[in-house]
Amino acid sequence: MNYLVSLPGLLIAIVFHEFAHGYSAYLLGDPTAKNAGRLTLNPIKHIDPVGFLFMLIFRFGWAKGVPINPMYFKNRKRDTIIVSLAGVFTNFTLALLIGSLLIYLPIRNSVVTDMMVITLWYNIMLGVFNLLPFPPLDGSKVVASLLPAKYEYYFYKYERYFYLVLILLIATNYIQRILGPLVDFAYNMVIRILIF
Q1: pLDDT band for position 60 (50/70/90)?
Q2: What is the pLDDT of residues 106-155, one digit of tens each?
Q3: What kind and span of H or E run contains 135?
Q4: Rounded to a whole number, what is the distance in angstroms from the first to the last CA of the chain?
Q5: Of 86, 36, 89, whose CA–CA distance to 64 is shortest?
């Protein structure tokens, strides 16, 4: 039953996050995601089976990355940042929407309430997690795009080592010490905005 309650929230958070990357890139001139059939809300197109299983069990996982080709962008660095943050922005927007429904609508069904709370949590968690500056997370692309060209080159050249840092943080569960306070902060910010 717990998985049945969690599953919709997880799917919503992941699918909308990935769709936002592809759609924002498309609006900025990159047809790669569209050509790959990724401008869709169909979960099958975005789910990586192993990453999805990890997300359900360990609350850390991954989806299929939406293919992006920055060469189509008019301003590569700026547009890369926009596309990278689109998924995070979408997750936080969904969290605000779901939070407002929970606060202002009289929902008496406990299962529906639980599903909405879990969906809100997944969206906040996924948004915060993707802001971390470790490849392949969105935050790493923002950091790289803000660097001067010379340092951006080295960042991407050695990014595989940053992958190892992220894997080590997850494997040792130290990531919880980083994410926990950040997720709590983001959650409290969402609540403050809604009841302001």
Answers
A1: low
A2: 888 888 899 999 999 999 999 999 999 999 899 999 999 999 999 999 99
A3: none
A4: 35
A5: 36
| Lookup: tokens for 7 | 């599953």
The yes-or-no answer on residue 18 being catalytic is yes
Residue 164: both structure tokens together:
């190892």
- Locus of tokens 């969105």: 138
Given 9, 16, 17, 18, which residue is catalytic?
A: 18
Supply angle C-alpha 155, 77, 47, rounded to 5: 75
Distance of alpha carbon 38 from alpha carbon 138, whole angstroms: 18
d(CA 1, CA 130): 28
Helix (H, G, I), strand (E, B) or coil at 67: coil
- The 10s digit of each residue's pLDDT in 13-34 is 999 999 999 999 999 999 999 9
d(CA 132, CA 166): 9
